[in-house]
Amino acid sequence: MIDLELGEEHQALVDTLREWAGREVAPKIHDLDRAHRFEPAFLRQMAELQLLGICLPEEYGGAGMDYVSLGLACEELEYVDTHLRVVMSVHVGLNSMTLWCWGSEEQKQKYLVPQAKGEKIATYGLTEPNAGSDAVGIQTTAVRRGDCYVMNGEKTWISLADVADHFLVIAWTDQEKKKKRDHSGLSAFILERGFAGFDSYTLKEKWGILAGNTGGFSLQDVEVPVENRLGEEGEGFKIAMFALENGRYTVAAGATGLIRACLDASVAYAQGRKTFGVPIGQHQLVKEMIAQMASDYDAGRLLWLRAGWMKNIGRRNTRETSLAKWFATVASERAAADAVQIHGANGYSDEYPVGRYYRNCKAAVIYEGSREVHKLMQADYALGYRRDKPRRVELPPYLP
Ligand SMILES: Cc1cc2nc3c(=O)[nH]c(=O)nc-3n(C[C@H](O)[C@H](O)[C@H](O)COP(=O)(O)OP(=O)(O)OC[C@H]3O[C@@H](n4cnc5c(N)ncnc54)[C@H](O)[C@@H]3O)c2cc1C
Questions:
Q1: pLDDT at residue 134 above 80?
Q2: Contact assessment for residue 96 and residue 115, using Cβ atoms and an 8 Å cutoff
Q3: What is the pLDDT of residues 288-306, one digit of tens each?
């Protein structure tokens, strides 16, 4: 039997997050956003709430919750502000879950345990100035020299670039395969901020997710110990895609939360604002926008819940997660645009939150596989051009 009810633990998590975010984040987010300021205290509080290791096993310092809990946390966090969900995406989804599945026991003890406890913050570095969707187009290299790799390159558009302590970085280890664009020449590495030759920066001209930190880093002859290679040489592309599958799940759930934020703000405004003698909610064209948000919210929620349920039972979910991410992010853009519309000129002011929702939603339509990338994936699955091949490493099912 399929059960769509939240269990007691899930509901308790939702209640806790609504209370915390409503008390600590909501009153400050307008000013933080306007000041383009990242608030480190939120990270400490998220660590205390065990969010930073939410679905990681207790033996590695995590909270031992299931993957649906991860989705619920992302939905609740993005309801308040996108930058909090981004922390979950890069720290938990892209980095820690990957390290847990692909890392050696030594790597897990050294890097995963402090990450799961929230003592160290982690992110993910794939994108470069000349390559985003085309991951094989990256230029960063890792050349083996004795018991280390010497890494050179430039990563950009990296969430938490100036905040994170640990970085999961994809680079070419086989220079012949790099020339042929053969992705089996890519490898993955764990880097620390303190490594000599590592230098990060914050992007100053970003126009959304302004309370978040986004930047880049350069690697100049960075010596990375061989024991910091994640997986085998040549597994970097598979690891990068594995990471994205979990990152996309967090983005899908988060975008669903943003749709709900748009819906709630729009309903409140439509009930209060009057034109032509009646609340604007009574005009059919406004109702249409509200109805679209309501249906998009439910559809987005069901799609990410299905992906979370599949993760819980250990079933491959590349297609379902891609669909959830594609649908929810595109729908969140529609919801945010309509929320601004319903607010009229007031929507065009930061006095109301919907302008922030509008600026924030767009990035998720671009990152972790753009709208176009997911559309192509869905078509290819439907047409039979794409089939999932078994992977050496899979996300373990949730075992209560
Ligand atoms: C706020 C923010 C945070 C980010 N955080 C991270 C991070 O933490 N780590 C990280 O590694 N990256 C991060 N990124 C980068 C993100 O993953 C890339 O921007 C994304 O992969 C798209 O790459 P691109 O920007 O180079 O666009 P491009 O790949 O150059 O694409 C440009 C346009 O062309 C379209 N396009 C490309 N190829 C095709 C095709 N084959 N068919 C049809 N259309 C196509 C795209 O959909 C897009 O519309 C972040 C980006 C943003 C905006």
A1: yes
A2: yes
A3: 999 999 999 999 999 999 9
Three-state secondary structure call for residue 323 = helix
| C-alpha span between 85 and 108 (Å, rounded) | 23
- pLDDT tens digits, 358-383: 999 999 999 999 999 999 999 999 99
Which residue CA neighbors atom 43 of ligand 1 most closely?
Answer: 372
Instruction: Give catalytic status of residue 351 as yes or no.
Output: no
Enter the tokens of residue 265. Answer: 């703000």
Q: Is 148 in the pocket of ligand 1 (CB under 6 A)?
A: no
CATH code of 240-383, in short, is 1.20.140.10
372 in ligand 1 pocket by Cβ < 6 Å?
yes
Q: Is the confidence at residue 195, as pLDDT, over 80?
A: yes
Residue 7, number of CB atoms within 10 A of its CB? 12
Domain 8-121: which CATH class?
mainly alpha
Q: Provide the 10 A C-beta neighbour count for residue 101.
A: 19
The pTM assigned to this predicted structure is 0.98
Domain-by-domain residue ranges, the chain?
8-121, 123-237, 240-383
How much distance in Å is there from the Cα of 65 to the middle of ligand 1?
31
Considering the domain 123-237 in this protein, what is its CATH number? 2.40.110.10
